[in-house]
């Protein structure tokens, strides 16, 4: 499938994705993964599977097999998709961090988004940047569990409708920036610390959390950092834990408090730059869906009203309100007028569109409403029956009829005066829109709209029943605003040419492609030319253990001990690697 200047392999599930989601997809470019990239994947997977087979939910190891994820090779997403389709899912490569709403909307279409880049060797234990270890080895295996997969899809459906705040976007950009510079070659510690402090400052000054902030908390404490089972004997299922060789061990200690999962998790914030001080334990996957529905009941998506409209105004983003008639108005909501705690008038700014049941109404597109859309809502003063419930006879009796010049006084002080041209009804026969000419709309003497040879469309609805992020009809707006970044997987390869060649030699030897090389000679050259590299000596050590080369294993052990003395922070990684060398089979 062609997307911009790139091509990716599609399938029936991906074919259903709307254009605004396809813009985030980029080719995986599997050939760009270097031998060091492959070694990083292999180390993390060997370490994780060895440990996680004991502490992760049983769906993890089962899911590795079902999704075709190998311990020895970075997964090829095209191969994964051939297997995932049997589960009703697909996977795509994307540009690292993408907006939270887009991330969740992919889930609603049963599509896993996978950042195709892989962490650098120096960040092997953990990186805040989305990478293929986190996405592929963390998220993908658990979707083999049907109950969890249903939760993930439902979360996407609800989450992509959550309303954000302007500060959410600022925080998203800051976290995205940190993830990029942490994985970029040559970034100074000063620059990283500055970015981390900026995130801390933003997190401390977010104000009242938005719906998106709250539901992202739920996502974090379940999909990313969730535990399942009992408080006394929890198992891991969250992708962040499954893909972090450091935190998957840390989280099982008494240093991390275990709390029963509940809707309170939505109000528990997290810091992406630090280990989590507490985690939530769900009794089973079905309970996740129960809490999600409880949370959805608090969202403007289901409550609408004045607060829902105000959330959209505060978000400064494209959103939709749905009236009690089913009429949907999409745009950037700018202002409202309220009366007795209820909205009686709303106004959008810029391109807006009207829809019914997520389908744009004919003649009510953005070309018709370029400068915005405003309308009163509620009941007429002195009339007990709302307009939407009036029969054709009622409408005629109140002069709300084609060709009539009317003056409609709404409760709260909004007045609409003009000549009625026509009305639009929904499938149930209820009137949802009245079109006027020579129309003036006022509120207590202030002009809100005055016809200037154009028609005026008045929305019909007693109340706002729903308010949510995004347009009602995706086709109404041009949502293509994302440019793909250049691929960074292979960045810096030219600086590591010789070292990469050594990694390739050992990889080829292990795979039986080149068995005539001297591993002892390779080790000696690595020791002399790249004395701080520890991962390749681990790989050579593993082969030496299998072939009972005691002299070589002894030399490598001594070399690695010296590295540990110079760089104590590598001690655990090296010790774990040596221990893994004696493990015969991990799956």
Automatic annotation (TrEMBL):
Cofactor(s) the protein needs: Fe(2+)
Binding of Fe cation, residues: 134, 139, 224
CDD domains tied to this protein: arom_aa_hydroxylase
GO MF annotations in UniProt: iron ion binding; oxidoreductase activity, acting on paired donors, with incorporation or reduction of molecular oxygen, reduced pteridine as one donor, and incorporation of one atom of oxygen
InterPro entries: ArAA_hydroxylase (IPR001273), ArAA_hydroxylase_sf (IPR036951), Aro-AA_hydroxylase_C_sf (IPR036329), Aromatic-AA_hydroxylase_C (IPR019774)
SUPFAM superfamilies (alphabetical): Aromatic aminoacid monoxygenases, catalytic and oligomerization domains
Biological process according to GO: aromatic amino acid metabolic process
Keywords carried by this UniProt record: Iron, Metal-binding, Monooxygenase, Oxidoreductase
Residue ranges of every copy of the Biopterin-dependent aromatic amino acid hydroxylase family profile domain listed in the record: 1-345
One Pfam family per UniProt: Biopterin_H
Record keyword Iron present: yes
Keyword presence, Iron: yes
Family according to the record: Belongs to the biopterin-dependent aromatic amino acid hydroxylase family.
UniProt-listed PANTHER family: AROMATIC AMINO ACID HYDROXYLASE, PHENYLALANINE-4-HYDROXYLASE
Protein name: Phenylalanine-4-hydroxylase
Protein's organism: Maribacter litoralis
Taxonomic lineage of the native organism: Bacteria, Pseudomonadati, Bacteroidota, Flavobacteriia, Flavobacteriales
């Amino acid at each position: 499938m062609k997307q911009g200047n790139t091509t990716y392999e599609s399938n029936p599930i991906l074919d259903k994705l709307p254009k605004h989601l396809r813009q985030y997809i980029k080719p995986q470019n599997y050939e760009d993964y270097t031998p060091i990239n492959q070694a990083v994947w292999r180390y993390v997977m060997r370490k994780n599977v060895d440990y996680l087979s004991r502490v992760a939910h049983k769906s993890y190891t089962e899911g590795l097999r079902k999704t075709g994820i190998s311990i020895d090779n970075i997964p090829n997403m095209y191969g994964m998709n051939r297997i995932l389709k049997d589960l009703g899912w697909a996977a795509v490569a994307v540009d690292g961090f993408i907006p939270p709403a887009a991330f969740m909307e992919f889930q609603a279409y049963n599509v896993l988004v996978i950042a195709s880049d892989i962490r650098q060797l120096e960040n092997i234990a953990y990186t805040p940047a989305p990478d293929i270890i986190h996405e592929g080895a963390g998220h993908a295996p658990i979707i083999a569990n049907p109950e969890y997969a249903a939760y993930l899809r439902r979360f996407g459906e609800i989450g992509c409708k959550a309303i954000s705040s302007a500060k959410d976007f600022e925080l998203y950009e800051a976290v995205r920036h940190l993830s990029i510079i942490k994985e970029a070659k040559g970034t100074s510690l000063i620059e990283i610390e500055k970015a981390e402090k900026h995130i801390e400052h933003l997190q401390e000054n977010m104000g009242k959390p938005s719906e998106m902030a709250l539901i992202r908390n739920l996502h974090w404490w379940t999909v990313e950092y969730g535990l399942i089972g009992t408080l006394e004997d929890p198992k891991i299922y969250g992708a962040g834990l499954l893909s972090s060789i450091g935190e998957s061990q840390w989280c099982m200690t008494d240093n991390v408090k275990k709390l029963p999962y509940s809707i309170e998790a939505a109000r528990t914030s997290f810091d992406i730059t630090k280990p989590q001080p507490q985690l939530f334990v769900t009794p089973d996957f079905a309970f996740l869906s129960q809490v999600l529905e409880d949370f959805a009941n608090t969202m403007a998506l289901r409550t609408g009203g004045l607060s829902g409209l105000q959330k959209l105004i505060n978000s400064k983003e494209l959103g939709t309100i749905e009236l009690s008639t089913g009429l949907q108005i999409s745009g950037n909501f700018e202002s409202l007028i309220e009366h007795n705690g209820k909205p009686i008038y709303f106004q959008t700014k810029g391109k807006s569109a009207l829809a019914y049941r997520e389908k744009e109404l004919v003649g009510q597109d953005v070309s018709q409403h370029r400068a915005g859309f405003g309308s009163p809502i509620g009941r007429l003063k002195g009339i007990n029956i709302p307009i939407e419930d009036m029969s054709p006879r009622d409408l005629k009796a109140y002069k709300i009829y084609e060709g009539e010049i009317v003056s409609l006084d709404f409760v709260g002080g909004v007045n609409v005066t003009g000549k009625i041209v026509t009305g639009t009804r929904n499938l149930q026969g209820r009137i949802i829109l009245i079109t006027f000419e020579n129309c003036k709309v006022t509120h207590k003497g202030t002009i809100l709209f005055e016809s200037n040879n154009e028609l005026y469309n008045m929305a019909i609805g007693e109340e706002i029943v729903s308010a949510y992020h995004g347009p009602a009809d995706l086709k109404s707006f041009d949502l293509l605003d994302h440019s793909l970044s250049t691929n960074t997987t292979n960045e810096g390869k030219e600086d590591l040419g010789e070292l990469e060649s050594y990694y390739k030699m050992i990889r080829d030897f292990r795979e039986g492609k080149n068995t005539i090389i001297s591993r002892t000679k390779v080790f000696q050259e690595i020791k002399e030319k790249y004395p701080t590299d520890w991962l390749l000596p681990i790989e050579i050590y593993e082969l030496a253990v299998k072939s009972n080369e005691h002299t070589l294993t002894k030399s490598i052990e001594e070399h690695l001990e010296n590295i540990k003395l110079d760089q104590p922070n590598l001690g655990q990684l090296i010790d774990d690697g040596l221990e893994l060398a004696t493990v015969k089979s991990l799956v």
